[in-house]
Design goal:
Blueprint (H helix, E strand, L loop, with lengths): L6 H17 L12 H16 L18 H13 L8 H14 L2 H13 L4 E4 L15 E5 L2 E8 L10 E7 L10 E7 L5 E6 L8 E12 L3 E2 L5 H14 L5 H17 L6 H29 L8 H23 L14 H12 L9 H12 L5
Parallel strand pairs: 1-4
Antiparallel strand pairs: 2-3, 3-7, 4-5, 5-8, 6-7
Length: 386
């Protein structure tokens, strides 16, 4: 596969590169999971992006975008990661809920939520998993009971990313308690400041709080906040999962830039490395390029009117395993320095690699555990029996 860009796409790339060079902060922002200060610093960056209409370039201009197709988004992502720009604190909104709203939301819902999402005024958490319903999302027990023009939400969500400091969350709730499994579920949006909500931070292995538990005790929200029809939540969430697993959440540029850094690290320590390390570096670089080509193929198919299906699970398994292997190789090159945390005075770039490795370990679990994804691939892609 050979990529060719139109003159308009090349012009767009130059525009993105110029803007990034002029606006990306010269020093890294503090972690958005470690403190409110870091979170708000990233929110301010989201607002800067929105001023240039870079929040999500595929969105219509009325919602803060540029009306581009997915190829334009991939070009933007390549330049974004090339510039070393800050990670997106609102990735749950921009990359997951945003495309879902575009597909299933009403005109009124899009006008209400998308501009505030693009500007960073409302940062979103994902509230799907529950203590007894992680990878088995159809087993959710949290309920949403209709009461006039409202829903009353009750239940317990866990592993809700960004929920510690976020403003809103999108969650899956059972609106028909008599329905079985995938039926009777609805996707509902709710503010994390509503009466009856308690957010309990969950410390990660590095001590930061990227996740939280959410306890809902008779939380009242307008029925307007339901996305799609009552009981249609499973179908809508599977569309969101397609964006999460197969396209939006982990753009190829993320891994391509990490692979380039890995090559540079290897060259700096080449005399200390054996042939097995060289092979691992080469494999990571090739896998990052292969993933990029695969996503370009998916984007081209979608541009031609196609859809994301069960094959998104193959992408999820691939990028999550690539991320672990790439960072494990970096740590093997660093040797004992690989143990230095990012905050250590002598860490330098080593701390960045360890931080990336610790995060990569979660990749085979979030966005649907890889064991479940392999079952989906076997049954729905390969047609194998259950």
């Amino acid at each position: 596969m050979r990529l060719r860009y139109s003159p308009e796409e090349e012009t767009f790339r130059a525009e993105v590169r110029g803007w990034m060079e002029a606006n990306v902060p010269s020093s890294p922002l503090p972690s958005f999971d470690a403190s409110r200060e870091g979170f708000e610093a990233h929110r301010a960056w989201e607002r800067t992006l929105n001023q240039g209409r870079w929040s999500m370039v595929t969105w219509p201009e009325d919602y803060g975008g540029r009306g581009l197709d997915l190829i334009g988004w991939l070009i933007f992502e390549e330049e974004y990661w090339r510039a070393g720009a800050p990670q997106r604190v609102n990735q749950n909104g921009i990359f997951l809920l945003g495309p879902t709203l575009m597909e299933f939301g009403t005109a009124e819902q899009k006008a209400r939520f998308l501009p505030r999402m693009a500007s960073g005024d409302e940062v979103w958490a994902q509230a799907w998993s529950e203590p007894q319903a992680g990878s088995d999302l159809a087993a959710v027990r949290a309920s949403a009971t209709r009461d006039g023009d409202d829903y009353v939400l009750s239940g317990h969500k866990i592993w809700s990313s960004r929920a510690v400091f976020a403003d809103w969350a999108f969650g899956l709730f059972r609106t028909d308690p008599g329905a079985e499994r995938h039926k009777g579920l609805s996707l509902i949006l709710f503010p994390l400041t509503a009466p009856g909500i308690r957010v309990q931070p969950i410390a990660q292995i590095d001590g930061e709080t990227g996740f939280a538990e959410i306890f809902l005790d008779d939380v009242r929200v307008p029925a307007f906040n339901r996305l799609g029809e009552d009981g249609d939540g499973w179908r809508i969430c599977m569309a969101t999962a397609g964006f999460e697993r197969g396209l939006m959440l982990r753009s190829p540029a993320r891994f391509q830039q990490a692979a380039k850094r890995l090559v540079e690290l290897y060259r700096a320590h080449q005399q200390e490395c054996g042939p097995e390390t060289e092979a691992a570096v080469l494999q990571s670089f090739m896998d990052a390029e292969a993933y990029a080509l695969s996503i370009y193929e998916t984007a081209s198919r979608l541009r031609a009117g196609g859809a994301i299906g069960a094959e998104a699970s193959t992408s999820k398994v691939f990028w999550s395993e690539l991320d672990v292997a790439l960072h494990r190789t970096a740590l093997s090159i660093l040797g004992t320095r690989a143990e230095l945390l990012r905050a250590a005075p002598e860490a330098g770039d080593a701390g960045r690699w360890l931080d990336g490795y610790l995060f990569a370990l979660a990749g085979p679990i979030y966005a649907g555990a890889n064991e479940i994804q392999k079952n989906i691939i076997a049954e729905r892609v390969l047609g194998l029996p259950r």
